[in-house]
Amino acid sequence: MSRAGHEQPPHGQAPGDAVPGIDRERVTGWMVRNIESAIPPFRFEPIPGGNSNLTYRVRGAGGTEYALRRPPLGHVLATAHDVAREFRIISALGGTGVPVPPALGLCSDPAVNGAPFYVMGFVAGLVPHDRTAGSSMTPDDRRSLGEDAVAVLAVLHSLDPDDIGLGELGRREAYVHRQLRRWSRQWEASKQRDLPVMDRVRTLLENRIPTQRRTGVVHGDFRFGNLIVKNGKIGAVVDWELCTLGDPMTDLGYLANDWIDPGGPELWRSSVVQDGGFQPMEEMVARYAALTGADVSELSYYRAMQAWRLAAILEGVYARYRHGVMDNISGVDLPSLAGSVERLAGFALEALEGGAGPAP
Known about the structure:
By secondary structure, the protein is an alpha+beta fold. The chain has ten helices and nine strands.
């Protein structure tokens, strides 16, 4: 969960300063050899805000700018943070109508920088990752962004994976079953304390899995914090680390959890929607249904499933911060992060016990 857009870089950094996660000499040599028009020296600046793969803004002597993505520092779960896979996805999506940064080059040799990395074009704009970040948006831009977010998601879900070279990205059937297995394993590997509510929710989710009616390319983390926005339009969707083939309704459920209408409760962090100017969530869902023809009657199940999954993800983030794997611990409120896991699990349980999804 990373940014690739608007955050301002640290002031006063000289081109020769050490940057955690970047071997300046070797990365510079690789970029000169592999990225057209890349002119050294390069200034590498971490883009703050990410909790997973690390993103850097790269400024070249010729005035060109790039974004570089690499895995977190230290040990990570074996199947996580596959930047080569992420590069393949944004390469395939270029020109499909889904806005993504231009994919420029992939380095698979860990000898260059200690881990694989890739370089993409830098897309400037606002990343409205929370209520404060989106405060500068005008009412017209807010309305426009709400419409565009739904339209882009509908375009993504309309793509035939085989037509864009992603037919082998993952298994197509039983997506929710596989997600529950995957994040159950992550929860068990990462959990820092016992939370019986997580086990209770997992049991209910397993007993109430809806029939998968459609299969498509699923982003896996489609929320406002992964959109780079300019003048109310999406310039790029970023952070494709969790993308695979599966049930598109899971993306809609995730976006719905980020679509916090004014006065609504926060599950994880605040939302740009809270300040008003956006369509009500019900209108967003109806628009998605109209654009895709999808049956959205079981959305509550997908919201619960995504809240539980995000709780498992954030517990992994919490674990990495506690054990010093993440390099941007300054300013991180660990008790608040732990509390977010508990709130998300509680929301999922409430939704399921309230009758969301088909009866077991």
